[in-house]
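ok trying this again, last paste got cut off
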Amino acid sequence: MKKLLTLLGTIGAIGLVQAFGVHAQDYPSRPVKIVVPYAAGGSTDILTRIIAQRLTARVGQSVLVENKPGANGVIGTEAVVRSTADAYTLLMMTNGQTISVGLVAKLPFDTEKDLVPIINVGSMPNVILVHPSQPIKTIVDLIEYAKANSGKLSYSHAGVGSPQHLTGELFKLVTKTNVVGVPYKGGGPAVADAVAGQVQMVVAGVPAVSGHISSGRLRALAVTSLNRSALLADVPTVAESGYPGFDANFWIALVGPRGMPNEAVQRLNSELNAVLKDAEIGKQFASQGASPVGGTPAQLGEFIKNDIAIWIRVIRDASIKVQD
């Protein structure tokens, strides 16, 4: 009897493995949802919809985008963390989520443990700009002016804890300048007041300011990525302006809830790596000031871990108040 039970248990285990294998091979067998934890129309939303359309064509199932904004991305992220871990509800996270680890005292989830890395999708530099009425032409001019006028220069950003805010604070720490950050409820109002001259300086994403740069309503001093932006090829980087290694991009990456099948992770990673290598996708991303990234789930996991560590240090060193 003992041998029979052992044999039946073995057969049952084989059956479960085979059944799971078929399920993994058939993934996805129904529509997949990608939650964007921000409002429609922003860079994360636009790039996610570009990716979703291509992924739909490759996997033969609809890949839908659902916007769940609120609490600087926390609401949408929590919805995915609490969802069934079957790989049919995913999250397009950004460094808004890695920043929140050091900024929010009691997050309702563990960003590293509760989210499974799938693929790093894209990266986009922020831009440091001034109103053209300012006697500032370069980053060097900006730093000299800020040091000579400590605390008198102000910059607008998309809100406390936004990637643009933290980029501005990192810039201040690296350059040892005292510039006053002015938070707004979103990047649009922050840019609008800079254009109007209500603040002398703004840190913003490329899509929000490219038109104002070409029209002369704002003067771009530098992009915050290691490499220049294809959309702003004439604008130098902070790194090449005297601060080697300065790198503070806005990025997006696809993740899922803890416990999702590894086979689904690998399928999504493989398909999306192929999508991100497509020349047309490169053009569509470039039109938004972004660059495709790609890579393995392990690489994304390490990237997220390092990004969290960077922003925890910036929040601490810049004395940014931790939110309850």
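PB: full thing came through this time. Residues 1-22 have pLDDT under 50 and may be disordered.
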